[in-house]
Amino acid sequence: MEANYSKCFDDDGRLKRTGTFWTASSHIITAVIGSGVLSLAWAIGQLGWIAGPTVMILFAFVILYTSNLLSQCYRSGDPVTGPRNYTYMDAVRANMGGRRVAICGMVQYINLFGVAIGYTIAASVSMMAIKRSNCYHSSHGKDPCHMSSNGYMIAFGVIEILFSQIPDFDQMWWLSIVAAVMSFTYSFVGLGLGIGKVAGNRSFKGSLTGISIGTVTPSGSTVTETQKLWRGMQALGAIAFAYSYSIILIEIQDTLKSPPAEYKTMKKATVLSIAVTTLFYLLCGCMGYAAFGDLAPGNLLTGFGFYNPYWLLDIANVAIVVHLVGAYQVYCQPLFAFVEKWSAKKWSRSHFVTGEYDIRIPFLGVYQINLFRMVWRTCFVVLTTIIAMLLPFFNDVVGILGAMGFWPLTVYFPVEMYISQKNIGKWTHRWLGLQLLSFACLIVSIAAAVGSFAGVVLDLQSYKPFKTTY
Which domains does the chain have, with CATH numbers? Predict the structure, then answer.
């Protein structure tokens, strides 16, 4: 009996975790190669051929290092047999405690909420690109094909309401794998089109220092010295956003089976995922910049216009939408789980909150429905969709999210938890090195936030809520 129990359950009494190196890698790639890849050509366009790729590689090393620190905080005390921390907040509570737990939770969940808004905007942009491309070709270029993004955001929201009813992370492995395949699909298409355009131009566009002062942007504004500074700062936020996945690292690690120790599997998965994504990012970002130069678009796959092969762009944009459906869920599941766990503890006697009802679905088996989960997750998706419709500025939102999440969640908390767990003494060489890394990343985050907010202010000057067309 004891042997059967150990085969079905882990050391914490929960059902055996079944995650592997490959499922963890697919979760990470799904989370990392998100809509952030689409803005990298624009980001390199602001920074230039020297600073752009250099900043991207530096971000990769920082993320790789701090992710390894964070993965060692999954278990408290002994990294192999110590008590598990199921969420990022649990890890902060076990290693640091006090007020910082509440601060961590607030930053993490606001960021996850923001990611849902950003992904809704990105998905609508890709849906519109498909529609406009087909419209343009059916009218043989006579119709400008202007349209509103609102209907597409609502459509994406309806899809997310359905997928949000998947109870937890462990039951989403198939969605992550599909989303990871889609992310490679549109990244390859973007890369291929960039190479094709460079070959057609017979030259590499761009400059060593980025966008030139006096350049007239597609929106009609002229880049001033101040705007170039803001844009450079915003580019840092865009690159930070493209790499941000530490926010859900612990939750991904909690799906892994052991032995080997979870942190060892996570370390390997992180190395593979960051190496693959950095190579993709450099290729997509650099080829996009080489193709368009100072006019590199905020969304790479909408920058090729409606030229042939338009069907290939359609395939890429469909892949983006499918990927974002999965990525939205990967990011939102920790927030869903937190609210539902807190509510179940507070209203433990409420059938509405804790009751599970079996519904038989033909060909799929039995689905357990929880009324609170259904209502709360639906309200969450509706709210994020409405905010996305109010602020449909892809680049600015991406920059703000990258700035908000990068320093606190990717650097500060992993560094401080590691110092606490390993009892690293103050003013030792290692302590000073870690604090210097944290301070440098704080400066980068502040600069990115300032640049992104400045971009929002500029956009709002010519924007009408719910009425903007493209």
Answer: 18-460 (1.10.4160)
Give the residue from 176, 166, 159 showing the smallest Cα distance to 367: 166
Contacts with 218 (C-beta within 8 Å, 6 or more apart), sequence order: 295, 297
Where would I find the beta strands (DSSP E) of 98-159?
none
Cβ-proximal residues to 452 (8 Å cutoff; 6+ apart), any chain: 233, 234, 237, 396, 399, 400, 402, 403
Handedness of CA 246, 103, 389, 143 (dihedral sign): negative
Longest CA–CA span in the chain (Å) reads 76
Please report which residue ranges of 355-412 form alpha helices under DSSP H.
371-390, 394-405
pLDDT by residue (tens digit) across 294-315? Answer: 877 777 776 655 455 777 888 8
Burial of residue 282 (CB within 10 Å: 0-12, 13-18, 19+) is middle
CA angle in degrees (0–180, nearest 5) for 89-84-29: 70
Gyration radius from the chain CA atoms = 23
449's tokens: 């936030």
Both tokens of residue 95?
Answer: 């290693």
Query: pLDDT tens-digit profile of 73-118?
Result: 888 877 777 888 888 888 888 888 778 888 888 887 888 888 888 8
Structure tokens at 365: 């088996």
Q: Which residue has the higher pLDDT, 42 or 16?
A: 42
